[in-house]
Every structure is written in C-alpha cells, then in structure tokens.
Write a structure and sequence with these properties.
The protein has 433 residues and is α/β, with parallel strands linked by helices. The protein has two domains: 173 residues, D-Maltodextrin-Binding Protein, domain 2 (3-Layer(aba) Sandwich), CATH 3.40.190; 158 residues, 3-Layer(aba) Sandwich (D-Maltodextrin-Binding Protein, domain 2). Helices cover 37% and strands 14% of the residues. It has 18 helices and twelve strands. The strands form two sheets. Strands 1, 2, 3, 4, 5, 6, 7, 10, 11 and 12 form a ten-stranded mixed beta sheet that branches. A two-stranded antiparallel ribbon has the order 8-9. Helix 9 crosses helix 10. The structure holds spermidine.
Length: 433
C-alpha cells in the first residue's frame, strides 16, 4: 500500500514537471508586474494598427527630441550617401485598381508646398482631380478638420501635430501595402518620436526655422535671435520685419533667445517670452507665415523669422509665381532653432482612402519627389528623389539652406505633451493684445 502511494506521488510529480515545460526561465506569458506596457514585443503591431488600437502617439518619445535631432546625420548628404540611406530595395510598382479610384481627392496642404504640375500629371495619369486648399499653421488645419466632415482626404501635419491628431483619433491608419514607394524614404526620417512605426503618417518635406535676411541691408551679418528680439537692433528695421504666425515657432524662437528649450513650459519662462514678444510687436510689419517668401524677394521685408524653404523660394523665386532675390541669405542663429518634418496623412473620416493612398504613393515616387523638392526648395526625405536635385539647389543647401553636422547640434524638435497647451494660451493672449 505504502509502495503504491509512493508510486502515485512520483507519477503526479512527473506530470507536474512535464506540464510546466521543465523550464524555470521561460515564463513569457505571465503578466509582468509592470502591466500592459511590458507586453511581449510580438503582441505590439509593427505596421498600421487596427483603428481601435492605442495610437502610437500615446507612446512617449524614445529619446529626448533635442538629442535625437543632434544625433541625426546631415540631410544634404551627397548622392552616394543618400542612396545608402534608402530603406530597402527599389520600390515595386503599385498595381492601381482604377475602378476603385474616386473622381476627386481633397488635399489640404500648406501654401507654396507642391509643384502644381504634379497635380496635373496625377490627374492625367489616374483621372483623379486633386482639389487643394491651403493653410499656414498646424493649429488652423486641426481646427478645421476636428469637428469632422471637413471634406478633406489628405492633410500635411508637422511632427507634433501628427501626435496631436493621432492622439485625438483624427487620422486613419495607413495601409503600407498600398505605399511601396515608402522604401524611397531615408531611414533617418522614418519612425520618429511623434509617430512610431509611421502608423499614421509618411514624411513629405522637412526643414529648419531661422533668419532670412537681405544681405544688401546689413553691414554685419545677423547670427543671433537678438537681431529680432533686441529692441536696439530691430528698431532700425521697424515695419520691414516679420515673425512666423505660429504658436510654436515664435514663442520657440524667443525661448531659444533666452537659452531655453523650445519645449519649455515653465510659467516663469513663458512670462519672459510673453514680455519679449509684446515688446517686439510694435516693430513688426506682421506675423506672417503665408507670403514672407514674396515679401523678402520684393524687398518689402529686410529680415524675417522664416522656414528654410520659404527663404530658398525668396532667393530663387517660385516657378512662374514670383522672381527670386539673389541677396537673400538664410542663417540658423547661434542659440539654435527648430527642425521639423511635415507629413502626409489621411483623415479618419476620408471617404476616399484608397485614392488617398494612391496619391501619397505617387508623391513618394523618386521622379515626383525630386521634381517637387526642386520646385518648393524644402528638404526631401526621399533618398531617390534627392539624387535628382540640380547642382544649383544642392549648392544652396551647402550655403546654409539645409543643416550640416555642426548645425544639427543646435536644432530641436517641437513635441506635444500635457503642458504644451500653454502655447495656445500664450499665443491667444499675444495676438489678442
Ligand atoms: N510653405 C510651406 C511651409 C511648411 C512649413 N511647415 C513647417 C511647420 C513647422 N512648424
């Protein structure tokens, strides 16, 4: 009897060991103490998540954005290097099912941000008319689409604005199988802090924000935000100066002038920013993000807070729209400034999502991206497109219209977090004064 009991006990012990897999190291299925954030990697989608999945925007940046910017290699890389930076083998061509295309596509884009021939060519090739409206600030675009039924299919939010829009469920997850030309985009421009895995957005153009000025009007070349914020310096140019009409850019520039991060929301620092901007206001011709390129080119402005591509347009002209001015120079102030990336994204309520993917893939094509970058003067994240840029544009990049390694160290990305709504309040108060 005793022997029988012993044998039964031994049998049970053997069964228990077998059922546990005989391993004390492999315990992957148990929920760790940290909860959901430590879920096994395999359970986290790498491609576009299902609409109900928590958006990538909820994830915090993996590194401090300023450090990320500084760590990135120069963008105006020589063609050979650019080729190495492409993410994969040449893109397979998208097999477009024309029967699924809509007749029209509604594109809400920044002003002066596409070569108009591209829209004509797309219509000729696919029979889809792209109807484009324009905006000049992320916040204006978000306000327009937030209530829903805006009628737009595609928008072009900057980095932190992608984060806001994904977080607020305004964007549709992308179907990467419809975007084979995504492989033309450089790795360094993908998977950034504001949209991990590019679940909702793909890079369109990127650039930097600094000073554009007319060199014929300055005996000493400006190299500091003091040219715009020190009353003693700006007063000479009263009425011939503009700042970007942008609630992150302009307070961000003032924060840089103070030696702070452009994401700083400390109330005492923001009070100083408010005072600086208030003191600057009487000297400004305008807050201007819409035609600062034209006004610099015509000589109406002598110095302006400006996006690098708008400055390049002022220098080179823009297609048949306006002529350039060879005296326009762009400089990143020694205190540093903003780097940003604008992205193509499809609205959650777009009725034309298939056509929107086809158009985005078209814009990511090497020839189209190269032609577009040559026209708008902003920096293309498209490795294959970059190879097609003219020597003239590449020379301007080297002259300061694009960052080099040294400049990267002074650049910082704007982020969204719970405290950055402070910029809404600051801007509303300043503009209302
Ligand atoms: N004219 C097109 C300008 C696009 C600039 N977008 C950049 C916004 C960064 N804050």
């Amino acid at each position: 009897m005793v022997r029988l009991r012993l044998m039964a006990l031994l049998l049970v012990a053997l069964l228990v060991v077998t059922a546990c897999g005989g391993s004390s190291t492999a315990q992957p299925t148990a929920a760790p103490a940290g909860g959901a954030t430590n879920a096994p990697a395999a359970e986290q989608p790498t491609a576009a998540p299902a609409p109900t999945a928590a958006p990538a925007a909820a994830e915090p940046p993996t590194a401090a954005p300023a450090a990320t910017a500084a760590a990135e290699p120069p963008t105006a890389a020589p063609a050979a290097t650019a080729a190495e930076q492409a993410t994969a083998a040449p893109a397979a061509e998208l097999q477009v099912d024309k029967s699924k295309l809509s007749k029209e596509l509604h594109f809400y884009n920044w002003t002066d941000y596409i070569d108009p021939d591209i829209l004509t060519n797309f219509e000729q090739e696919y029979g889809v008319k792209v109807i484009m409206d324009l905006y000049d600030a992320n916040e204006d675009m978000i306000a327009k689409v937030r209530p829903g039924n805006s009628g737009y299919d595609i928008v072009v939010p900057s980095d932190y604005a992608v984060d806001i829009m994904a977080h607020d469920k305004l964007l549709a997850p992308l179907d990467k199988s419809l975007l084979p030309n995504l492989s033309n985009i450089k790795k360094q421009n993908l998977d950034l802090y504001y949209d991990k895995g590019n679940a909702y957005s793909v890079p369109y153009f990127f650039g930097i924000s600094g000073l554009a000025y007319n060199k014929s009007k300055f005996t000493t070349a400006p190299d500091s935000w003091a040219s715009l914020f020190d009353p003693a310096q700006i007063e000479k140019y009263k009425g011939e100066v503009s700042m970007l009409d942008d609630q992150r850019e302009t307070p961000g520039a003032a924060l840089k002038y103070l030696g702070k991060s452009l994401n700083d929301t400390d109330p005492a620092d923001l009070k100083q920013v408010q005072d600086i901007l208030k003191a600057q206001k009487p000297f400004l011709a305008a807050y201007n993000s819409s035609d600062v390129n034209r006004k610099l080119a015509s000589g109406e402005y002598v110095i302006a807070h400006c996006w690098s591509g708008a400055a390049l347009q002022a220098r080179n002209g823009l297609g048949s729209d306006f002529a350039g001015n060879p005296d326009i120079v762009f400089v990143m102030p020694k205190e540093g400034g903003m780097i940003w990336q604008d992205n193509l994204a499809i609205l959650a309520d777009s009725p034309n999502k298939y056509t929107a993917h086809v158009f985005i893939n078209y814009l990511l094509g090497a020839d189209v991206a190269g032609k577009n970058a040559e026209y708008v003067g902003y920096l293309t994240p498209n490795a294959e497109g970059e190879k097609k840029l003219s020597p003239e544009i590449q020379a301007l990049y080297k002259e300061g219209f694009a960052p080099d390694e040294e400049m990267y160290k002074r650049l910082e990305w704007a982020v969204r977090n719970d405290k950055t709504t402070a910029f809404d309040e600051l801007w509303t108060a300043l503009k209302g004064e």
